[in-house]
Amino acid sequence: xxxxxxxxxxxxxxxxxxxxxxxxxxxxxxxxxxxxxxxxxxxxxxxxxxxxxxxxxxxxxxxxxxxxxxxxxxxxxxxxxxxxxxxxxxxxxxxxxxxxxxxxxxxxxxxxxxxxxxxxxxxxxxxxxxxxxxxxxxxxxxxxxxxxxxxxxxxxxxxxxxxxxxxxxxxxxxxxxxxxxxxxxxxxxxxxxxxxxxxxxxxxxxxxxxxxxxxxxxxxxxxxxxxxxxxxxxxxxxxxxxxxxxxxxxxxxxxxxxxxxxxxxxxxxxxxxxxxxxxxxxxxxxxxxxxxxxxxxxxxxxxxxxxxxxxxxxxxxxxxxxxxxxxxxxxxxxxxxxxxxxxxxxxxxxxxxxxxxxxxxxxxxxxxxxxxxxxxxxxxxxxxxxxxxxxxxxxxxxxx
Amino acid sequence: xxxxxxxxxxxxxxxxxxxxxxxxxxxxxxxxxxxxxxxxxxxxxxxxxxxxxxxxxxxxxxxxxxxxxxxxxxxxxxxxxxxxxxxxxxxxxxxxxxxxxxxxxxxxxxxxxxxxxxxxxxxxxxxxxxxxxxxxxxxxxxxxxxxxxxxxxxxxxxxxxxxxxxxxxxxxxxxxxxxxxxxxxxxxxxxxxxxxxxxxxxxxxxxxxxxxxxxxxxxxxxxxxxxxxxxxxxxxxxxxxxxxxxxxxxxxxxxxxxxxxxxxxxxxxxxxxxxxxxxxxxxxxxxxxxxxxxxxxxxxxxxxxxxxxxxxxxxxxxxxxxxxxxxxxxxxxxxxxxxxxxxxxxxxxxxxxxxxxxxxxxxxxxxxxxxxxxxxxxxxxxxxxxxxxxxxxxxxxxxx
DNA sequence: CCATTATGCTCGCGCACCGAGCATAATGGT
DNA sequence: ACCATTATGCTCGGTGCGCGAGCATAATGG
Lengths: 400, 400
Hints:
Oligomer: homodimer
Strand content of chain A: 15-25%
CATH superfamily of the largest domain in chain A: ATPase, nucleotide binding domain
Radius of gyration of chain A: 23 Å
Number of helices of chain A: 13
Number of domains of chain A: 3
């Protein structure tokens, strides 16, 4: 979301941007719904839509008969030659590259498993896919947005435990100097999508938390990702909620991280630190119904999760907490422990109506949707629209 | 700060709002500086300023000779009959009521000590001052903004340890149904002013922390206070950084609160819990240079402060941390302990260039400035300006 | 088949910003 | 004292864009 600008000339495209943002948020709206939502007169709507069609930013299609009375209103959709963003998802084992249009529909998609997890190999593979995507779709690709399972600062991965990366710049993924490259933590971007389009839709302040190996997440306020000054915000797992004698791989001690994931449960069971804490956690969760020791470990992690969430709610005051990954499994396996920890961690005045803890609804596509949203946030700005106008005008001149 | 609006008719006043917001942020700008900052043509500036003068929103005065060449540019100031906000500060021992004009200058000011600390007595006293303020200044008072040393939700104080209040609505301070009443935690509002006008000026993401009794603070992003869904955000003192067996008066356990203030130092010295932890802390700090036990207690609190700040920096990724209250004294008395704790709490990738910890610059007026800023944020909006236009038109008609 | 309902389009209006050209008010060298 | 230089302000016609009234269009339903 763009902030009010304090610069007058930028007022010009505000109407068009309002329409495009609304369309992006609610793909498939009819024109009359749009006009009502934005308080547009029908004359303004006509004019705006015509201008945006001319700019190849949106298109109208006849909508399915509504059954109601009155003249049917056309549905607004992304223009078939409109702007796209290229979204990349790099996780522990796989990569995905997708072209996404306004509204969030995936236009093209490729994916694969890493054969070699070294940064150069992964980036080279992905870079080639982005190049191919751009060859096919040309100037329509307005930005590249990467979701990666790592701590991110700017466009650099500073550390990725599961990938084994440290200080890896993702600048090689930028296909050209004038294409914006955005890099974000996968949990943060999934949180963005969850808050805007998932369980948090319509809620002003949403805290999203996910447990995989460690705890990630982000606070989303008014649809804005609060990922800090450098994009490295949301590392809630590295708040020192835990035993200060426990050393975390991040370099600090007592991190909350170490109390809630597979490492925590293995430690409590007296097992050595697992190679793959995610799978270890799943095994322990599966064993819990019949193995009291496993159940105790699950309960301990569930309680630590709840208590930490309580502390974060004290500090950040969200209206809703969305949970993802292992946090959902822990809540399902030991709901009473999570709740007991949560309530114990809350300041007492909050216990009357604490923000609900709900599982996220978007699943593994959340990070793609979030990365696409983050990218469209940079496209749907005054400079973004002006650049698109120039670019599409050139293409049309060349074509005619 | 207002969010982009998605409603077209609101575009109308955007230019005027941009001017007013700029003036509020930089009182004493000249017209030509304004035009440059906002990228206005001189024609637009003429028009805008004339309109705003007619609306009694700003005025021009001849500026002191700059010494430079060229035609001198008039200085823009708040209009002498322009809008004001009524700011109230309620702290442990005192109350203050001030009328503040655009730009932040205090126009009128009264204050006193509480004779009776009961909510009814304090609120009644303050209510009468607000009424007097409104009698003198009439429709010019556009909002009432209260900074109170308490946890706040909406316009209600949910708990105030030092005042001894619980669940006290401040609605009685609203002088009329149509006057906006804003209530905020004093530390949060001081942080807002610090981030906008103090040590954090120009920095996009600022974390402000203050230690008095417990820890308060707030994150300010792009000049926006992140005080959560209900205004109760910023209770960083109630993150469970500490010993989980310690019970906090807030109802949770292990709060960071309990490790850094006068209670923490007294506990470490084997003293009973002090009645007035703030003064106790000052005594211990004063004794530290010659008393090793006091020094150890100070060092312990300093280290706990640093470690917690490190954790918060991990989670929130500010570019700057501003400190206020006892946190400044602890940093001065035991800088190495604060720094050691801070570095130990940071994720290692952050240790290269961690955000600086700096003392705040605004002092005890910060909370007044912050409350005024929060109030002007509601006045400098499209509805606020439209209401002012109607109101000032009525007054002028009545006057002529 | 036409009343009803909902929506879209045309067109004149007005607001607010732009830019070019001219006016104004200071400095500073001769 | 005068005038070139510099910086700024004002006037005025042009334009982009949203508004609203009135008319046109496309569905439903008795």
